[in-house]
Design a protein that fits this description.
Layout (H helix, E strand, L loop, with lengths): L7 H14 L13 H8 L6 E2 L1 H5 L4 H5 L1 H8 L7 E2 H5 L8
Antiparallel strand pairs: 1-2
Length: about 100
C-alpha cells in the first residue's frame, strides 16, 4: 500500500489541537490520552475507520472550522476515511 504522508508539522499541530479540544474523556494530568482509545471513541460504528463525520464529532470552534482540511491531509491514501495508522501518524510523543 502506498501512502503519501502529510507533513509532520501539520500532523503535529492537528493532533495537538485534538488533544486539547477533541478528547471526550479526561486524562490524568500530565498524561496523553491513548490514541487507540481516542480512535475507538470516535469510531461510532466500530468499523475500524473514521468518516469525516466521526472525525468531527466533539470538535468545537476553530478545530471544527479546520477539520475538513485536516481530515483530507490525514487521509493519506485518499479513500475518504482514516485508518488508525492515518489517525495516529504524527501524534506527538509523550514527554517523559
Amino acid at each position: 500500500m502506498h501512502h503519501n504522508a502529510p507533513s509532520p508539522t501539520i500532523l503535529l499541530l492537528f493532533f495537538a489541537a485534538l488533544a486539547v479540544v477533541g478528547s471526550t474523556a479526561a486524562a490524568a494530568p500530565g498524561k496523553q490520552d491513548d490514541p487507540q482509545k481516542r480512535f475507538a471513541r470516535k469510531d461510532a460504528n466500530s468499523d475500524g475507520f473514521l468518516t469525516l463525520e466521526e472525525f468531527k464529532a466533539g470538535l468545537k470552534d476553530k478545530a471544527l472550522e479546520k477539520a475538513d482540511k485536516r481530515f483530507k491531509k490525514s487521509d493519506s491514501n485518499g479513500d475518504g476515511t482514516l485508518s488508525f495508522d492515518e489517525f495516529k501518524a504524527g501524534m506527538p510523543k509523550p514527554k517523559g
